[in-house]
Amino acid sequence: MNYYLYKIHFTGPVHFGDGADAKALEHTTISLCADTLFSALCHSASQMDGENKIPALVQPIIKGRLAFSDLFPYKKDTLYIPKPILPAKLTGDMVDASRRKQMKGLKFIPVTRLEEFWRGLQGERELHVEELAADFGTPWDIIKAAVRNDKDALPYTVSGFLFYEDCGLYGLVKYENQDDLNLVRRLLKNLEMDGLGGKISSGYGKFRLQEEKILDDSEKYQDGQSSFLKNSLTAKTKGLSLLLTTSLPRDDELDNSMQGAYYTLTRRGGYVLSAKYSDRFYKKKTQYFFAAGSVFTNRFLGDIYHVSQEKEHPVYRYSCPIFMEVRQ
Fold first, then answer.
1. Highest mean pLDDT among 142-151, 266-275, 282-291
2. Is the dihedral of CA 166, 171, 175, 181 positive or negative?
3. How far apart are CA 194 and CA 70, in angstroms?
4. Which domains are delineated in the chain?
C-alpha cells in the first residue's frame, strides 16, 4: 500500500462540529473527521457524475484498497498528530504536577516527537510539554438571527475557527491503485469551491490544496518528517498502534480490538446532504466511534456503514482506519 499526503489552506473561517450534542453550531473543533470528509467526497462525486460516480469511490474502500485519515493541523512545515490517549497509571505520577494542566490541554503533538512523547510518559526521559504545543488560529464566533413566520427573531451563535496564514489541515490517503487516488484528487479539487465542514452555504470551509506528495523513498521527499511518517505508517508493529481515523470496528472485530486498548468515544451523527434523498433534512443514524488518538494493541479493518432511513438511495458513513506505529 502507498500513502498520499495533502495539505489544505483555508481561505476563511471553518466550522467543524464535534458531534457531541444537539447544539452543534455552538461548538467547533480544529480537526475534521474522516467520515465528514468522505461524505463531502461523495457529494462531490454526485455533482460530477450523479449518483453513478459514488460506487467508484465506495468499492475500493470496501475491498481494502483505499482508506482515509482524519484531517489534522500543520504549522508551517510541521505536521501534528493527535496526542495519544494513554491510561492514568502512565500519566499520573510520571508528569510534574505543574505540567498536568498543560498536558490536559494538549490536543496535538509534532509527528516526529511521538516517540519522545511516549518515552516521557513512561518516565524514561524528561517531557517538555510546553515545547509540544502550538497555536494554529483563533476562534471565529458570529451571532446570527433566525426569523420564523411573524415571530421575533431568535439570536443564535455560529462557532467557527480561523486558521493563521501559515497553518491549515493535512490528511493522508492510503491507496493501492493509482486510478483510485486520481479519483480522490479530482474530488478534493472539486470541493475547493464548495468547502468542507458545516455552514458551507454561508461561505465557511473554502480552501485550496496547498501541497501534495507521495510518501515514498524518492530523494524529493526524503526529509526527516516524511521519512518518519512513512516508516511509522508502513511498520508491521507488534506493539501499540495510534489510530489516525475516527472509526469503529465491525461487530466481529470489536472484542479483539478493545483488548489492551486505550481510547475515548465520540458521537457521530449528522444530516443527509442530498436533494435526491429527500426534500427535507433527514438525520443519519447515530453511532459512537473510537476517536483519533486512541491507542490499540490489536488493529482492526472497520467498514462502511449504512446510516440512511431507506429512502431514495443509500447513505454511507466511512469507518476504515489508518494506523501508525507507536515505538516502544
1. 282-291
2. negative
3. 19
4. 2-237 (3.30.70)
